[in-house]
Amino acid sequence: MKDFLFKVPTKLIFGENAALRMKDIFDSLSARKIFIVTGKTIEKTPSFIAMVEKLREDGFACQVFSDTVADPPVEVVDEAAKALKESGADAVLAAGGGSSIDAAKAMSMLITNEGSVRDYLFGGTKTVANKPLPLICVPTTAGSGSEVTAASVITDNQRNMKLSITHECLTPIYAVIDPIMQMGMPPLITASTGMDALTHAIEAYVSLNAEPISDAYAEKAISLIGKNIRTATFNPENREARGNMAIASVLAAAAFANAGLGAVHGIAQSMGGIAHTPHGIANSLLLPHVMEVNAAGNLERFAYIAALLGEKTEGLSVREQGQMAVKAVYNMGKDLRIPSTLREVKVTREMFPSIVEGTMGYRLLAVNPVKIREQDVYKILEKAY
Q1: CA 105 centroid distance within chain
Q2: What CATH number matches the domain at 11-182, 3.10.290.10, 2.40.50.180, 2.40.50.100, 3.40.50.1970?
Q3: Which is it for strands 174-177 and 11-14: parallel, antiparallel or unpaired?
Q4: Which architecture, in CATH terms, is 187-384?
Q5: Which residues is 95 bridged to in the sheet?
Q6: Order of all β-strands in the sheet with 33-37
Q7: Ramachandran region of residue 63, left (φ > 0), alpha (ψ -120 to 50) or beta?
Q8: How confident is the model at residue 201 (pLDDT cuts 50, 70, 90)?
Q9: How confident is the model over 8-13, as a mean pLDDT?
Q10: What is the pTM of this model?
């Protein structure tokens, strides 16, 4: 067995209405002024309003910043960081999906590190030197897993690319996993963010950097998603399904934070910067096509994915079981009514060369189970078209 290091530094608190019981967290940080980062839609939900009211009742000064946007661009994050600095806050609370959490990570970092967030993106001129403001996350989606990772994905519109800042300092101190905060997710958001979590788990599981602990997290996440994603999508008030999806998202994120990702994320991240395709939808429609290419790299693992998703694999060859996993993932996306072709999300063939170029620069392609070539990416895009 190879040597490995496994990290999950974020402290997790799980429970229904856990977001209404955060006084001890902020007291432990000696924080009195909280800057709350969210989006316009989440800001209006009853669960968010109740959370803010409870914090104020507990004696905390709260300033709500709701100007975050999907796939936060450099300019928006830089301006938001100025608002955070002017607030004088001593802690940041991110309540939202991956975009809000990623923006909050970058904003918190910029309070103690000079320059623009662009300077710290992959390939930039600066590295994170100072510890950011303390960050606590309350995810309102079950997908990105950003609440337990050290990465912040930011859009650089100058280069039409989504890039990340990755540094241990960006890892949130606490993640409060409260299924009630996720009850208001619309069906497409529930479905696509859930498929994002499934992609995290599968890519971590077949990564060349996979190891026994990341495998355990990934396997459990795949199983939980297979059993719960349809119920959470079409019966959104089902608290058990919501809770299981929330846990699956955390498990999948911890798996990929240690084992890495692969070609699905390489293509999806490139596509997001060029065509602004929502990340979960991009992952969902690309995942089965990338699995088909990757299966030869580890047939046994792809075969077991089929079993984890609840498919009947008895009496089939390993290759047939691997093909069943691909079909199961494709059918899941169709069942969930997620767009299944690039045409549906306005990706054109004219964009392919730029998407391929961006994909080939993705650093985690190195741990994909097969070596991905440009012709492979073109083939995947054509099949997804």
Answers
A1: 13
A2: 3.40.50.1970
A3: parallel
A4: Up-down Bundle (1.20)
A5: 138
A6: 11-14, 174-177, 135-139, 91-96, 33-37, 61-65
A7: beta
A8: very high
A9: 96
A10: 0.95
